[in-house]
Design brief:
The chain has 191 residues and is mainly alpha-helical. The chain is built from 9 helices and no strands.
């Protein structure tokens, strides 16, 4: 029961933080959303900061596991990048509100956790960079500004949380396909 209730509180915090921001949300507001007294929340969670950590690191760890899996499998760079984009899109679309919190509200993590989060984010960025490096080595990607390419890809996939609608016209696999096709237009080396 405690784990289920804690999960409900995390889900409500995702919604509130996505809509109002971490700073614009209070424990009193969250308790009201849940139909509880504010003091009751502390039976299930330590603090508002604890909720933000759970949300940010849950998405972050899913992304790290996904990129590690892609880079551990031997495919050519194009297949790896398509798979990395597909995995990222699926994670974002599985919970757009948590993804929005992950993308925007991490700045409000406590300093030690913020440092840990930035390390996690940099590790993920390095995983994408490895794929770009592989594509350059395989001579299928242009040798250009790798950091710009990586940041452009990450910006595109992370921004999905701003507009994705689960009841909308496009499903995650379509989004991933169109996005990957668009990315490859800019990365592919012409002979």
């Amino acid at each position: 029961m405690v784990d289920r209730r804690r999960q409900q509180i995390i889900e409500m915090a995702c919604k509130r933080f996505a809509d109002k921001g971490f700073i614009g949300s209070s424990m009193r507001d969250l308790a009201a959303d849940m139909g509880l007294e504010a003091a009751s929340l502390y039976t299930y969670i330590k603090s508002k900061d604890d909720l933000l950590e759970d949300i940010c690191f849950s998405i972050g760890n899913k992304l790290i596991n996904a990129i590690a899996e892609v880079n551990d499998i031997y495919f050519n760079a194009e297949e790896k990048l398509r798979m990395a984009i597909k995995n990222h899109v699926e994670i974002i679309c599985a919970n757009p509100q948590a993804s929005k919190v992950f993308t925007h509200e991490w700045r409000h993590l406590q300093e030690a956790k913020k440092t840990e989060f930035i390390t996690l984010r940099n590790q993920y960025e390095q995983g994408i960079t490895e794929i770009i490096d592989t594509g350059i080595t395989e001579q299928i990607f242009i040798e250009d500004d790798k950091r710009f390419a990586v940041l452009t890809i990450l910006s595109a996939v992370n921004w999905i949380s701003e507009w994705y609608n689960p009841q909308g016209k496009m499903k995650p696999n379509e989004i991933a396909q169109k996005l990957a096709d668009f990315v490859f237009t800019g990365l592919k080396k012409t002979i």
